[in-house]
Design goal:
Distance between the termini: 38 Å
Number of helices: 19
Shape: globular
Mean pLDDT: 84
Radius of gyration: 20 Å
Largest sheet: none
Structural class: mainly alpha
Helix content: over 70%
């Protein structure tokens, strides 16, 4: 066996460990939604009050991205991932044993704040260790791991709610994360990276002075708003049309499965299409999907929107991630942390902005607006990436 083959196999082993960490982070994030009603009944609280559990988690998950990015540059990628996986155990177990709603809210917020480090640190690790020609495929695999986790978490959360085992559902990912952080992640070698001697403020200064870095973060914010923000209203649109919650959830659950399958298509077509082609194709898929949802809020239209949104996420998000990783190598973790924050901020802002349309039952207009933004997003991001490449 040649030395080159051994190197490839060793790199694949490292990436599998990263994908396991990403899987746990996504799983923990997507488990809670199907369990909100069961948690409300168990803690004798209203649904609106229990929704704070999810809101606090998502908010801290987004806000902590820049903090972990700075620490990743200072302490190292592997050390941050390991601290994260071990660190979620204590607040995770507190949430399992929470005697009332507010202990649950605070503990879940701490879990979200801690798990938030996994995604940016793993992305930066890929940027530090994977050659440019193979980076798109590695990022597609990361997205596939997250998509698989979201699909399984949705099913597991629903089952846990049905069996009234929501506390167990909170326990499993954090305990597995602790084992992974203690016994497996330490096997990862710490990659060499530039910028160790540069202060956090200096790296942020580098970021804001680099127009291409600012642009890719801005594009990520719009992407998060269009894909994830609009995705929130697919299931309510079906329920408003008279479908059951179970059928609506199953239809929208196609998003996770579709993302997983489309990610394989990204790996096969990355070299042929190039980054700008991937972005253009993803934007087209996104526009097509939400146009279908705008035409009819029925099972076919919404299912097609979910499948196309999954494809758009696989094509566009992995390409924008790859761009963010390479645009400013000397402050890579800082850029990635702002990139991740932009995704969640964009999603949250878009969800709130179109809420009045959903409240009024104007789902056709809501999805039409998403399609109208998706088309220029794909075109402009493709043109910008092409010009950057030149």
């Amino acid at each position: 066996m040649t030395e080159e083959v051994v190197g490839v196999e060793e790199l694949q082993g490292r990436l599998r460990l990263l994908r396991a960490a990403v899987f746990l982070s996504w799983f923990d994030r997507f488990t809670v939604a199907p369990m909100l009603l069961t948690i409300a009944a168990g803690l004798e609280a209203s649904l609106a009050e229990v929704a704070t559990v999810a809101s606090a988690y998502y908010l801290m998950y987004g806000l902590m991205q820049p903090v972990w990015g700075v620490l990743s540059d200072r302490l190292g990628r592997v050390r941050v991932i390991r601290l994260t996986l071990v660190g979620v155990v204590v607040p995770g177990l507190i949430s399992v044993l929470a005697p009332n709603l507010w202990v649950l809210v605070v503990s879940r917020a701490l879990v979200g704040a801690t798990f938030a480090a996994v995604i940016p640190a793993s992305l930066v690790y890929i940027g530090d260790t994977v050659p440019l020609r193979a980076r798109q495929r590695a990022l597609a695999d990361q997205i596939a791991a997250g998509a698989l986790a979201s699909a399984i978490a949705t099913v597991a959360g629903g089952l846990a709610a049905y069996l009234d085992l929501w506390r167990l559902a909170f326990a499993v990912p954090v305990l597995v994360a602790g084992v992974l952080g203690l016994f497996f992640v330490p096997r990862l070698p710490e990659p060499e990276h530039e910028g160790d001697e540069t202060g956090a403020l200096a790296r942020i200064g580098m970021f804001v002075k680099r127009p291409w870095a600012l642009l890719v973060v801005l594009l990520a914010m719009v992407e998060g708003g269009v894909i994830l923000g609009s995705l929130t209203y697919l299931a309510p649109a079906l329920e408003d049309a008279g479908y059951s919650a179970a059928v609506s959830g199953l239809a929208v659950g196609l998003y996770g499965l579709a993302t997983l399958l489309w990610a394989q298509a990204v790996k096969l077509s990355a070299d042929r299409l190039g980054p700008h082609g991937l972005l253009l194709f993803g934007g087209g898929l996104l526009a097509l999907g939400y146009a279908a949802g705008a035409v009819g809020q029925n099972l076919v239209g919404v299912a097609l929107a979910a499948v196309c949104a999954g494809g758009a996420f696989a094509f566009m998000h992995s390409t924008l991630q790859s761009w963010a990783i390479s645009v400013l190598p000397e402050a890579r973790a800082t850029v990635i942390s702002f990139f991740a924050t932009a995704i969640f901020v964009g999603s949250g802002v878009a969800t709130a902005a179109v809420a009045p349309l959903a409240e009024a039952g104007s789902y056709g207009l809501l999805f039409a607006l998403a399609a109208a933004v998706a088309a220029p997003l794909g075109l402009l991001s493709s043109l910008a990436r092409h010009r950057y490449g030149r």
